Structure formats: structure tokens, C-alpha cells
């Protein structure tokens, strides 16, 4: 469980986050969205202690990020950010994935197992011996995913993990995120792509450091005031679901098309 209790972050007179209070339960898939500068990245960094609150507190499974051991907190809440080149530290793929488990001081046999399992999970096992410098951007991001999967955390924090990847690479990354969630893990995703955000069960919209909306994807579709502030174009099928108030799975293009045909006769 992740809990914000009137948590805020100020830089001088500027409040990046302003007294947020919310709880993210174990196994939830929560998406964060908002205009640039709304506080999304600050939110992520508060959870695993890369930033500390200047007011209130943030706890992860009961551990206070400002008071308790950050190593223990980061074992529970693993984070992955936008640019894999800024996160990869090892020369080879297997050494990169081994880095986290080695820091956990796990037995060699367990480390080997976690490397194989994590690389298989992201479909990169065949690249185990490859140099990380020779990988494409999408492959590097999948290796970065494998690195945090190998930590076997209970919560995974993703800050715009698809923003520097082509459309096909984005699709693969989102499939990995969905599979992580299906394993019962907590997922917190920051994205500017509404088709990714609407895969979550809960969406939080931040604006000027405050929570503007906290609810289901379907309810957000009917908040034109919020969508106007976001100013992100809705994918065609989501726009159709919104305009015609379709009662169907809004994530599935075929379901939306069938519901639209029924509505229009």
C-alpha cells in the first residue's frame, strides 16, 4: 500500500505538489496524467524516496520515506524512467539485469534464475550476452524493465516509459506493464498517451500540483472540463465511446465499433 498524507513538495515559493492525500492499494493499476509541470514526476519520485516531502508524509507498506531505510523502500517500489540510456549502468545485458539482485545479496543460483526469468518476461533472453550499447532504444527499455522485474518488488513506478519509443515499441512496453499488473503487482504509470492511460483501472489527473480528478477511465470520458484542461486528443474509439455514451469495454476497438453500430441502428 502506498499512502500520501497531506504530502507536498515546495521549491522556494513554488509548490510542485500541494498537500495530496490518497491511498493506492496493493494490486491497483493507477495512471497519472496532467499538463507539463503538474507534478507527475514529483509524485513518482516521492514514492521511492528520490524526493522527500517538505510537508506531510509518504509511506510505502508502512515505511516512511523521510524516516525509514530507503533501500528497504526501493526494494518494495521499483522505478523506471523515460530514457533507458540514463538508467543502464552495465556493459552487457546480463550484468545489467543482475545489478539489482546482486545488491540484494542474493545467492548466485537465485540471481541466475532471476536474470533468465526477467529477460524471458520481456522477450529479451536471446540478448543475454549482448552489449547494452548495441541495442535499439526499445530493446534498451525492455532491458531496463527486466532489471526492475528481477528485483521482484511489490510496486512498479513508470514515468513516461514509452515517450522515446516508436509505436511498435510502445505497444510491447504496454503489454509488459499489463502483464506485470496481472501478476498482482501495484502499477503507477505516468503517460501523455491517453490510449495508455485508459488501460488503468484508476486515473488521477494532476493540475498545478493538486488532484483535479481521481476516478475510473469511463467517468473521465464524461468530464469534458477535465479533458479540455488536458488538451490531449482522444483516440478515435475513445472519442466515439464518449460522444455516444457507449456501454461497452472502451479499451477494445472492436467492442466500441459493435456498440456504435447497435446505437446507430
What report would you give on this structure?
It is a single chain. With 265 residues, the chain is an alpha/beta fold. It has a single domain, classed as Rossmann fold, CATH 3.40.50. It is built from eleven helices and ten strands. The strands form two sheets. The protein has a six-stranded mixed β-sheet, sandwiched between helices. Strands 2-1-4-5 form a four-stranded antiparallel β-sheet, covered by helices on one side. Strand 9 and strand 10 (210-215) form a beta hairpin. Helix 4 (108-121) packs across helix 5 (137-149), helix 5 (137-149) runs parallel beside helix 6 and helix 10 runs parallel beside helix 11 (253-264). The relative contact order is 0.15.
